[in-house]
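Re: [ENG-882] Designed sequences occasionally contain unexpected residues at chain ends

Forwarding the minimal case from QA. Structure tokens:
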């Protein structure tokens, strides 16, 4: 299915000392008298996903893990072991091997997962929905994730449980909100725009992230490049992508469109002129036409708009049946339906009411333009 598989195997995690050591890195810790990484490797083999990159933190740990895999899975799997610096985090580990990732989609799985869910089914679901990211969630233990340390008795009882707050659409197939490690006692604030986009949302605190993801490679590369401070897939990358899917209005599954490789939605009937670009987090509606050398960034353009050449639209909403002349510049503005902007209009921080005509060469900043009430 043109998937590359990345297994994040960790290293000699300080959190697991003294169980781990230089001689026994995390991936080789025994579970049921087998190295823990063997469970995921055999699960991948059963799904016929046999070309793997196993990422290990630390050169010495990588050598030991690679040596064990070579002996145990000779002639069964094709495994490349990649060493990355210690303590870079899951996102940092992917960033370090990004040049090795060339397939359309990337399956990322934790090296300590023990599961009977066919990983091929996760990959197939990701491809079926043409998703930017697919995450596997599972039921959390009734008592919640265990606390670290050796707290017992009344000390443990005082500690609030930490949960993932998960928001799902009515079909329970699409993530529309995620807050990792949130305390159940705290208020959770959810933007109205999210609720408007999905109509209805189910909030769950009984689910946990299984640390199994499928990513569209082009979007993953873009996020890792632009967000160089992101260290964790669970805490940084996944919540960011969930937020981004709603920046452009309706979520893709509700609009009937699919995200492109550029993380935008362009209706198949829309027409783009030569050297015209529509950036990430943008939407271009049905039947709209754009001339040559236009640029759209972080904006929504509605249906059946006619946009001339050399037009720039940034951080703006353009509604339906809007006509925009050549050489216009629109920034941080909202243009209502049936508006006409004649040539060389410059708008910044403006709102233009329905049906209004802005004359050629006008430059407006911080204005509300609308027809006079009769």
């Amino acid at each position: 299915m043109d998937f590359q598989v990345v297994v994040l195997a960790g290293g000699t995690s300080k959190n697991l000392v003294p169980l781990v050591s230089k001689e026994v890195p995390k991936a080789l810790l025994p579970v049921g008298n087998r190295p823990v990484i063997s469970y995921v490797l055999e699960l991948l083999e059963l799904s016929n996903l046999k070309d793997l990159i196993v990422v290990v933190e630390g050169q010495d740990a990588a050598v030991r893990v690679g040596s064990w895999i070579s002996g145990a899975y000779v002639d069964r799997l094709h495994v490349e072991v990649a060493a990355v610096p210690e303590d870079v985090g899951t996102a940092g580990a992917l960033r370090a091997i990004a040049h090795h990732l060339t397939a359309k989609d990337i399956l990322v799985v934790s090296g300590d997962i023990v599961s009977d869910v066919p990983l091929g089914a996760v990959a197939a679901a990701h491809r079926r929905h043409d998703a930017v990211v697919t995450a596997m969630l599972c039921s959390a233990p009734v008592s919640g994730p265990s606390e670290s340390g050796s707290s017992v008795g009344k000390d443990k009882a005082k500690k609030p449980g930490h949960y993932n707050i998960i928001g799902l659409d009515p079909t329970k197939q699409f993530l529309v909100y995620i807050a990792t490690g949130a305390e159940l006692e705290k208020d959770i604030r959810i933007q109205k725009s999210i609720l408007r986009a999905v109509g209805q949302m189910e909030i769950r605190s009984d689910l946990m992230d299984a640390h199994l993801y499928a990513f569209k490679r082009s979007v993953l590369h873009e996020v890792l490049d632009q967000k160089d401070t992101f260290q964790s897939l669970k805490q940084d990358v996944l919540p960011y992508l969930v937020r981004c899917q709603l920046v452009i209005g309706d979520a893709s599954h509700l609009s009937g469109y699919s995200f492109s490789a550029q993380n935008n939605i362009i209706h198949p009937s829309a027409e783009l002129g030569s050297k015209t670009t529509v950036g990430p987090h943008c939407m271009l509606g049905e039947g709209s036409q754009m001339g040559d050398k236009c640029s759209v960034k972080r904006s929504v353009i509605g249906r059946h708009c006619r946009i001339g050449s050399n037009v720039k639209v940034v951080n703006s909403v353009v509604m339906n049946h809007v006509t925009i002349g050549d050489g216009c510049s629109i920034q941080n503005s909202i243009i209502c339906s049936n508006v006409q902007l004649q040539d060389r209009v410059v708008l910044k921080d403006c709102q233009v009411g329905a049906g209004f005509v802005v004359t050629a060469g006008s430059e407006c900043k911080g204005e509300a333009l609308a027809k006079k009430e009769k």
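QA comment: On inspection the terminal residues look reasonable. Residues 144-160, 248-257 have pLDDT under 50 and may be disordered. Proposing we downgrade this to a documentation issue.
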